[in-house]
Amino acid sequence: NVHIGLPQVHETCQKCETSRSCHTSKHYTIIVLCVPRLFIAKLYLIPLFFFIGGGCTMSLTYLARLALRNPDVCWDRKNNPEPWNKLGPTDQYKFYAVSMDYSKLKKDRPDF
């Protein structure tokens, strides 16, 4: 077990002077206040939290992009039942296009 300054189960709580085992969910602020102390004591954990936080942020950003920009997602079936039909030939809906310039494409579909 790594001791980071939190009271152990058999020790008494510093806030209310009772046994720590009787109320484990009351003092989350102790844990929140000990996180910076953990970073200072264990500097090798900083890259781990940095990359895990960055990965979570990027995955949530991509999920939000898919939900908002993808033509396959229909949020309003009543007013826009087929959103993929409203895309023009010059609209870019792919995430990344290597050598495609969508503004120079010609219209090759009929209007309905």
From TrEMBL:
Listed transmembrane segments: 45-68
Highest taxon above the source species: Eukaryota
UniProt KW Transmembrane keyword: yes
Pfam assignment, any one: B12D
Topology class, membrane: Single-pass membrane protein
UniProt keyword terms in alphabetical order: Electron transport, Membrane, Mitochondrion, Mitochondrion inner membrane, Respiratory chain, Transmembrane, Transmembrane helix, Transport
Entry's localization field: Mitochondrion inner membrane
A single Gene Ontology CC term: mitochondrial inner membrane
Family stated for the protein in its record: Belongs to the complex IV NDUFA4 subunit family.
Protein name: Cytochrome c oxidase subunit NDUFA4
Organism expressing this protein natively: Cyprinus carpio carpio
